[in-house]
């Protein structure tokens, strides 16, 4: 850890944990709950969890192998279930979440419920916006393609049609010209 420093004096057989001098001068302190021996607390013998961060956290291997080691009491007296009751009460405890102006006080379940609702709402909003923009894009692209792109097959078909129409119109004009010539030739 960046805040603590551990030393072991082999001649006196003393293990000591202290704050580094920069943190000790700022008034930091720590405490270890004594479950029979401080050494167990310091060395992690009584730890419930393994892992170094939220991604790797898991129930300790010892407790997975023997669940009878999970104790719901502070003292070994029969009927002492203070730890278990304290854990149950945590579900009703209000905790402050956030920083600055974005602080809120809620239970862990309430905060999680609110967070999941916000994430779900934003996700749904983004999905709808994406679908709308995709539909707009496709409509604009289709219109653009119909106006700007040239189909060689379509243009060749139009060219043949116009050429045939031009040939037919030329025959009509030629026929009318011959008829006029014939009619004018009869009068003369």
TrEMBL record:
The keyword Protein biosynthesis does not apply. It comes from the Bacteria. Keywords: Cell projection, Cilium, Flagellum. One of its GO terms (molecular function) is structural molecule activity. One of its GO terms (cellular component) is bacterial-type flagellum hook. Signal peptide: none annotated. InterPro entries: Flg_bb/hook_C_dom, FlgK. Residues 142-184 form the Flagellar basal-body/hook protein C-terminal domain. GO terms for biological process: bacterial-type flagellum assembly. Pfam families: Flg_bbr_C. Belongs to the flagella basal body rod proteins family. PANTHER family: FLAGELLAR HOOK-ASSOCIATED PROTEIN 1 (PTHR30033). This is Flagellar hook-associated protein FlgK. It comes from Sulfuricurvum kujiense.
């Amino acid at each position: 850890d960046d805040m603590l420093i551990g030393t072991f004096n082999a001649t006196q057989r003393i293990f000591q944990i202290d704050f580094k001098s920069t943190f000790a001068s700022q008034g930091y302190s720590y405490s270890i709950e004594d479950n029979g021996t401080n050494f167990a607390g310091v060395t992690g013998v009584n730890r419930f969890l393994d892992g170094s961060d939220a991604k790797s956290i898991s129930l300790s291997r010892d407790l997975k192998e023997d669940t009878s080691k999970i104790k719901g009491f502070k003292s070994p007296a029969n009927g002492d279930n203070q730890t278990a009751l304290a854990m149950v009460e945590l579900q009703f405890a209000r905790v402050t979440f956030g920083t600055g102006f974005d602080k809120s006080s809620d239970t862990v379940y309430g905060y999680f419920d609110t967070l999941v609702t916000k994430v779900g709402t934003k996700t749904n909003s983004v999905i709808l916006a994406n679908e709308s923009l995709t539909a707009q894009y496709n409509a604009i692209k289709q219109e653009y393609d119909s106006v700007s792109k040239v189909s060689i097959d379509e243009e060749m078909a139009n060219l043949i049609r116009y050429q045939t129409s031009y040939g037919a119109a030329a025959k009509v004009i030629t026929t009318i010209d011959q008829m006029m010539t014939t009619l004018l030739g009869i009068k003369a």
